[in-house]
Write a structure and sequence with these properties.
heterodimer, A: mainly alpha, 20 helices, 9 strands, B: 1070 residues, 22-stranded antiparallel beta barrel, five-stranded mixed sheet, 57 strands
Chain lengths: 492, 1070
């Protein structure tokens, strides 16, 4: 009788199937990577909403689009008037915890797999790399957050163990243990499929975490391993602008990218809305088939941050030509693939992100603009050099700092500069502009050398409140759902 | 002619061998036994033939005729075989020399339809002399002075007529729907109404077939206390049914339907004309025999069977029109233009001379017709009923169409005295052309009236101006069609090895195959489609989607029933049985793009293979149950019923999957006691009380099992690779949701059963209700919820029903009845998991929390309109909307000095505290008239369509354009403008009270004389109207709004309820 009522789920993998299928553990690991595609207007890891919390929040860019569009979600982030009920903050919180949950489910099931230990350790390493990276973004966005180091039982859903926030220090320790495990167990680039986490990716990510921890010695050592080629062959890509094109995907400069492509249904092998949401938007008299929603427009200050002849300015920003005087024909802006954007009278804003631009004609795509296959460059060699330069400077190794800083400048077509902290930070700004790092970097730099961040935003007419705006609010719905076990960040 | 039918009885009936041995039993009981053995029906007056007398019979395989002769002759009763039974009456010889008579009275007795009633007892009051009517209902009787005649017939209310000086007396008898001897279906058996200890209500098939409605469920509206039917106007939509309040929060709030033993959740496949009766099991004691399936009540449908006699062919049909019953008047072009100029001066309004009423453009008068042809009959071995039904209901929205063909076959074969095989089966084929009503209706509400609708095949471009799609285009550029085939039926074997014991084994199946095809035309926002180019209403690539659902559900039931009467005092019925159930539903779907616009090409193979997508899903579940029941009645007075059910389900894990659900019912028929017997003022009084428990497992099949979704892609080495992910959180320990119900009732009949009624108190508590509970995002579930046992729900209430039924002023030409039922229900949620409230509805307008009703509206209190700068300065600041002169003012309910979402409060729910029905009938000779009212009192409706705006250019209602706040019209209720993103507030909340004339029927039965020449049995013509008018203060389309437990009563884009007017014809051929 009992057997009659044991009905296995139809058309879905059950836990039993995972135990017996040698490929199942690998599949669950790949499913964790897939979480990085979350975007659109729902749960988000690397889509428009993540861009809003990282770029739009910074001094590098403004909300963009038309003035009233997405005002409540993005406009309030742009000018620091957001509240705990901001939907974007909630969606990014949701996205990252979905990724962490998938990672925990995979970590829970990998040990059940019949695969060899070495394989299982690589799989565990990949997942712990991803979990560490996800938590690194969370801790930078929110400070201390709930620490989910395993799959909770349904009965534990209201348990304080999971609902209450761990301290930021605890989360950093958790991230470091995940990334260290990844460093110890991941293969080198080339010894695994392109797109999988590698030893160098884990070392680079861990170095960046140590930079935030002000553990410059560790940051230096880890980046040095990469620079000295012990973790595989990495180098700067000669043409800066190529980095964000299909041609530059997974180049010598790449340590870790969100991999994208085209699947048959054209709906789930890229980050939802990433590219199209940042594409230049028709406005004024319009009259052309525009490229997107026009969010994340670079500020004048960002454009002005570049030294003359810096090739990175043109590689980072699409500049819209001013409206031609009456009687003259406007030239418009011709992009690298030949696409011509008309002048300002037909375009909503003056500047757009070139790094997010994906060519509809010269790069692969399947016609669905919501899923243009643009790889997101999460960690690249240029940043490794700058982390190394900063860490070297802070540990008294000025020579190494100078070498690495100037390696980055040389590729940008600029002459050498002395490796001061200010110079390295300025270089980070222009080298990594619109790469979803600037806001975190500003907050980090302020903690190293206070007094800069408030005037910087004041110059853009925005009031950054110290002690509050370093972090985003914990989403109010999540506080409500936790029965107030989650506590709010100061000032919200 | 009539005489032929009278003289040609199917003689073999009387040759049937009967085996019957009884000693000193009441004659009525003996006759009943003969009835069940011989499949005959006796018609008689207990009083006239003295059916209370005790008789003994000892017959083994005796022909029926012989047995009847032996039995009846000594009792001086004669019998006559007629088409539908055997009439018993006092033997003529026994009348002896007639009493001295002053007059001979002749007359005719007819039924409610004017058809002559044979076998009616006509007795002189206070004496024993009398006669019976003949085949045409005619009678002759000699009466002394000052005589009152009493006309009585089983199943009809008795009537008394003072003879006076009349020599001709015609009488119309009214059916006694509450007849106490009526047998109701209680699940795996039947019971006399008088013997019931639970709450069971019956609606006769005749009441259903009179109504021009598509599903029998809808015809129940207003008929039964405690049963709320909420239907919408969409062709082939399934009405929501709430029996004694909303008892659960998940999908399983609907009752179980049982069609001739087939358990199902949907009876839209049935033809109304095939239904003999519907019984509604309302309380846990009555429904307990269905255990796991019966927690929200059970609706038992019994279809027609053949009656003894030669084949009878009958036709019933209706045809008519339907149209939207009530529309909302939108601002016309000039109102709109002046409104928009005021609220959005910068908007450039297109200069057209047009004035479009978008509702007129997408609505029409639809046709409705329903034809049913049936042949039925029976002889001693075979009983049959075959029917075919064709229904067409085109709805009231353009392009919408629905038609359905149903074929039914009900047969039973008596193989021997001990073995019967029976089968009921219906096949239906439904063809639906759906419209995208949600989008079109929402757009019709918002589209600007200054845009032309469609000219010379080109659409007005509402999207280029106001970002609202053209509703006609929404309908015409999407072609949605579904074909549904359904086979529902059973085959059963009954064996009676010894007297009183029946063994039954039956297989019930419900097979469903649904093919759905959606085609979206390609069109651009250019001059080949639109009058003006631009806008975002376009579809770059045509799209063809098909899906196929195949489902089966089978139940194998084995029961043993033992029925015995001891010493004529102890009546005992025992039932034990097992039920085994399995259901499987599979769905396959495919999509391709770039498919030609030619409907002949709308098959997947013609689409671009590079765009092909396909998908499938499946769900399977099983149940295993043991059931038992004891019915015991002592002396027809003291009643005892207990149901026991042990259920196992595949939807819970091994440790949780079995549940035991008992019930107990007690009854006392007070009027059978000596001190009340024969009392005609209080002719019937019964007290009953019951307790019962029921389970509910209606959650998705794999709710407790952790599963991984397959084919989750990620790109490695530049190629998409398929991974898997465990995304959903599952509660491994989900278990039974249990409903416990107490029920106490008094049933009464007054004034010789002219006034009958019932008053019931019930207390129903659902514990461990299965609910999708919102969980924090940190658990990573994409929907942020999981299903668990997380709340208690109580429904307490009183049901009352009262019926008055009599002839008018003693005249035989008139009779009438009047009935009313009312239900007072109080729904509350308690013990929510972790105190976590559940939000639901559009814009999360409802919140269901401890201490309030499920689906309570949780809103800001709109207390007026800001009239002056002073008023603004003196009111709290606000985070939920502008504080401008002419904008809505919300209450700072919590007094914290700021108006924000924390000021939301509960303002009632859609669940009515009171709902009611009033029905009545009037017969005058051959004319019959009936009506049904139904309605709700004191519930709330949320007019969400007013709030769901995306732009200032969306149209407004005409009343708002006229009555809104302006400097010259300082309204304190309406703001100056309707704007997007207005918060949920009481401004949109309206009263849901209404009174609706649900059904009106006027019929005329042709006189028999006319028909005889045409060889017709009976012919009745009638006119029927459904949803005639509604009295309500609600300003939207309808206050009757179907929805789920958490989102009922929200009008956003509902299909308009329709008014149907039809003419109908019922014919029985001879």
């Amino acid at each position: 009788c009992k057997d009659f009522l044991d009905v296995p789920p139809q058309g879905q993998l059950s836990e039993d199937a995972i135990r017996t299928d040698p490929a199942a553990a690998q599949k669950l690991v790949d499913g964790v990577y897939n979480a990085m595609y979350l975007g659109g207007f729902d749960a988000d890891m690397h889509g428009l909403q993540f861009v809003i919390l990282t770029d739009v929040a910074s001094d590098d860019s403004d909300k963009g689009s038309s003035p009233n569009d997405y005002l409540a979600n993005a406009g309030t982030v742009d000018n620091f008037t957001l509240t705990a009920s901001n939907g974007t903050v909630n969606n990014v919180w949701n996205g990252y915890f979905q990724g962490i949950s998938r990672a925990n489910q995979a970590l829970d099931k990998i040990p059940l797999s019949p695969a060899a230990d070495q394989v299982k350790n690589r799989l565990l390493g990949e997942v712990r790399f991803l979990r560490g990276y996800f938590y690194f973004n969370l801790v930078r966005l929110f400070g201390g957050v709930p620490k989910l180091d395993r799959v909770p039982l349904a009965s534990e859903i209201n348990s304080p163990e999971f609902q209450k926030r761990a301290s930021a220090a605890d989360i950093y320790a958790f991230i470091i243990s995940d990334l260290q495990f990844a460093v110890d167990n991941l293969p080198l680039k080339g010894a695994t499929q392109t797109g999988r986490a590698t030893k160098a990716a884990a070392q680079g990510m861990l170095a960046k975490v140590y930079l935030y921890q002000k553990n410059y010695q560790k940051a230096y050592e880890l980046t040095n391993e990469i620079i000295t080629g012990k973790s595989g062959a990495y180098a700067l890509l000669p043409n800066y602008a190529d980095i964000w094109r299909t041609a530059g995907a997974n180049s010598s400069e790449s340590l870790f990218e969100v991999q994208t492509g085209v699947n048959a249904a054209c709906n789930n092998s890229a980050v939802n809305l990433y590219s199209v949401s940042q594409g230049p938007r028709s406005g004024g008299k319009g009259g052309w088939a525009d490229l997107g929603f026009g969010f994340n427009t670079p500020t004048q200050q960002a454009a002005d941050a570049y030294e003359p002849n810096d090739v990175r300015r043109a590689g980072t920003i699409i500049f819209i030509q001013p409206t031609a005087p009456a009687g003259q024909r406007s030239t418009g802006t011709v992009l690298w693939d030949g696409f011509r954007i008309p002048s300002k009278d037909s375009v909503e804003n003056f500047r757009y992100s070139y790094k997010a631009y994906h060519s509809r004609t010269k790069e692969p795509n399947c016609g669905n603009n919501d899923y243009l296959p643009k790889n997101i460059r999460v960690l690249r060699y240029g940043e490794i050099l700058l982390i190394n330069a900063e860490a070297a400077l802070q540990t008294g190794n000025a020579a190494a700092a100078t070498t690495n800083l100037n390696a980055v400048r040389t590729r940008a077509g600029l002459g050498p500069k002395p490796a001061t902290l200010a110079n390295i930070w300025q270089e980070r700004r222009v080298e990594l502009a619109l790469e979803h790092d600037r806001f975190f970097d500003l907050v980090r730099q302020e903690s190293v050398q206070p007094g800069m961040i408030v005037p910087l935003f004041a110059a853009q007419g925005k009031t950054f409140t110290k002690g509050k705006n370093e972090l985003f609010p914990i989403p109010q719905p999540q506080i409500d759902l936790s029965g107030n076990q989650l506590t709010q960040n100061p000032g919200y | 002619g009539a005489t032929t039918a009278y003289a040609a009885p199917a003689q073999p009936v009387l040759d049937q061998p009967i085996t019957l041995q009884v000693k000193e039993e009441r004659m009525a009981a003996v006759l009943a036994k003969i009835e069940s053995q011989a499949n005959v029906h006796f018609q008689y007056s207990r009083q006239l033939i003295g059916a209370g007398r005790r008789v003994s019979v000892n017959a083994v395989g005796q022909p029926l005729a012989q047995l009847l002769n032996q039995l009846l002759e000594p009792l001086q009763v004669s019998y006559k075989l007629v088409n539908d039974g055997i009439i018993l009456r006092p033997a003529v010889a026994t009348a002896g020399p007639e009493a001295p008579a002053d007059a001979t009275v002749t007359g005719r007795v007819v039924d409610e339809k004017g058809v002559g009633l044979p076998g009616v007892n006509v007795v002189i009051k206070g004496g024993s002399n009398g006669t019976q009517t003949d085949m045409d209902g005619k009678f002759t009787i000699s009466v002394p002075d000052n005589t009152t005649l009493v006309f009585s017939f089983v199943g009809y209310t008795s009537q008394e007529v003072v003879v006076g000086t009349q020599t001709t007396i015609n009488v119309a008898l009214v059916p006694d729907a509450k007849a106490l001897s009526e047998v109701v279906v209680v699940g795996y058996g039947t019971q006399r109404r008088q013997d019931l200890t639970g709450a069971v209500a019956r609606v006769d098939g005749a009441e259903i077939v009179n109504q021009p409605v598509q599903t029998p469920t809808q015809a129940l509206q207003g008929k039964v206390a405690g049963v709320q039917i909420i239907s919408d106007g969409t062709p082939n939509s399934q009405p929501k049914v709430r029996i004694r309040g909303t008892g659960t929060l998940l999908g399983g709030a609907e009752p179980l339907y049982v069609v001739d033993g087939v358990q199902t959740t949907d009876i839209r496949n049935l033809s109304n004309a095939d239904i003999a009766s519907i019984d509604v099991l309302k309380d846990a004691s009555a429904a307990a025999i269905y255990g796991v399936r019966g927690a929200n009540g059970v609706i038992i449908v019994t279809t027609k069977k053949g009656a003894l006699g030669k084949p009878v062919l009958s036709y019933s049909g209706t045809a008519g029109f339907k149209q939207a019953a009530r529309l909302v008047e939108m601002a016309d072009a000039s109102q709109y233009t002046s409104y928009l100029k005021d609220v959005s001066p910068t908007t450039v309004i297109p200069t057209t001379t047009g004035n479009t009423n978008w509702y007129d453009e997408i609505l029409r008068r639809g046709t409705y017709q329903n034809h049913n042809l049936a042949v039925s009959g029976a002889n001693e071995a075979v009983r049959y009923y075959f029917s075919g039904n064709l229904l067409q209901d085109d709805g009231t929205v353009i392009n919408n169409k629905f038609s359905r063909l149903t074929v039914r076959s009900n047969t039973s074969f008596k193989l021997s005295e001990k073995v019967t095989i029976s089968s009921q089966a219906s096949f239906s084929h439904a063809d639906t052309r759906d419209v995208n009503i949600g989008t079109a209706y929402g757009n019709a509400y918002r589209a600007a009236p200054v845009i032309p609708s469609k000219l010379n095949g080109l659409y007005g471009n509402t999207s280029a101006f106001g970002n609202v799609g053209n509703p006609i285009l929404d309908i015409e550029k999407n072609d949605i069609k579904s074909l549904e085939n359904r086979l529902q039926g059973n085959i059963g074997l009954d064996v009676r090895p010894i007297e009183g014991l029946t063994l039954r084994s039956a297989i019930n199946v419900d097979l469903n195959a649904d093919n759905r095809r959606t085609y979206n035309y390609q069109f651009a926002n250019n001059a080949t489609t639109f009058l003006v180019t631009g806008g975002n209403q376009r579809n770059d690539r045509s799209n063809l989607g098909v899906s196929q659902v195949n489902a089966y559900r089978y139940l194998w039931e084995n029961t043993a029933t033992y029925q015995r009467n001891f010493n004529d005092k102890h009546n005992l019925t025992l039932l034990v049985g097992t039920v085994t159930e399995e259901g499987l539903r599979t769905e396959f779907s495919g999509i391709r793009k770039n498919v030609s616009a030619d409907p002949d090409q709308w098959y997947l193979n013609t689409g671009d293979p590079n765009t092909a997508e396909n998908n499938a899903s499946a769900a399977k579940d099983r149940r295993l149950s043991l059931l038992g029941r004891i019915n015991y009645a002592f002396n027809n007075r003291y009643l005892f019923t207990t149901n026991l059910r042990y259920d196992g389900t595949s939807k819970f894990n091994r440790d949780e999957r079995y549940g035991f659900f008992p019930s107990l019912g007690l009854g006392w028929v007070v009027s059978e006691e000596e001190f009340l017997k024969g009392n005609t003022t209080l002719s019937y009084l019964k007290l009953r009380a019951s307790f019962g428990q029921l389970g509910n497992d209606q959650i998705p099949a794999d709710t407790y099992i952790l599963t991984a979704d397959a084919n989750i892609p990620y790109v490695f080495n530049g190629t998409p690779t398929l991974g898997a992910a465990i995304r959903q959180i599952k509660d491994r320990n989900v278990t039974w949701e249990t409903t416990t119900e107490y029920d106490a009732a008094v049933e009464f009949g007054l004034l010789d059963q002219r006034l009958t009624g019932e008053l019931t108190y019930y207390d129903k508590r659902t514990t461990d209700a299965l609910i999708p509970v919102n969980i924090p995002a940190i658990f990573g579930d994409p929907e942020n919820q999981y299903i668990t046992n997380a709340a208690d729900i109580t429904n307490r209430g009183v049901e009352a029903a009262l019926t008055w039924r009599t002839a008018l002023g003693g005249s035989p030409d008139w009779s009438y009845s009047l009935g009313a039922n009312v239900t007072f229900n109080r729904n509350r949620i308690e013990n929510l998991n972790g105190g976590q409230a559940l939000f639901g509805g559009a814009n999360l307008v409802t919140k269901s929390d401890n201490g309030v009703a499920a689906g309570s509206f949780f809103l800001l209190d709109a207390i007026g309109v800001y009239q002056s700068a002073d008023e603004i300065a003196n009111s709290p600041r606000s985070t939920v909307g502008p504080r401008e002169i002419g904008s809505l003012k919300y209450a700072d309910s919590n007094g914290d000095g700021v108006i924000d979402l924390l000021d939301r409060r509960y303002f009632g729910s859609y669940q009515p505290p009171v709902y009611y029905g009033i029905n009545g009938g009037l017969n005058y000779r051959n004319v019959d008239f009936s009506f049904v009212f139904s309605g709700n009192l004191n519930n709330k409706v949320y007019n969400a369509k007013k709030q769901l705006r995306t732009s200032n250019t969306d149209n407004v209602e005409a009343s708002f354009a006229n009555d809104r706040w302006t400097a010259s019209n300082p309204s304190n209720t309406n703001p100056k403008a309707m704007v997007p993103n207005m918060p949920n507030s009481t401004y949109f909340l309206e009263s849901g009270s209404y009174l609706r004339l649900t059904n009106l029927v006027l019929g005329y039965t042709l006189p028999t004389a006319l028909l005889e020449r045409a060889h017709l049995g009976t012919v009745r013509v009638f006119a029927a109207a459904q949803n005639v008018f509604t009295v309500t203060n609600y300003t939207g389309f309808t206050p009757e709004l179907a929805g789920g437990p958490l989102d009922s009563g929200i009008e956003a884009t509902t299909y308009p309820t329709s008014r149907t007017v039809t003419l109908g014809l019922n014919v029985n051929f001879k």
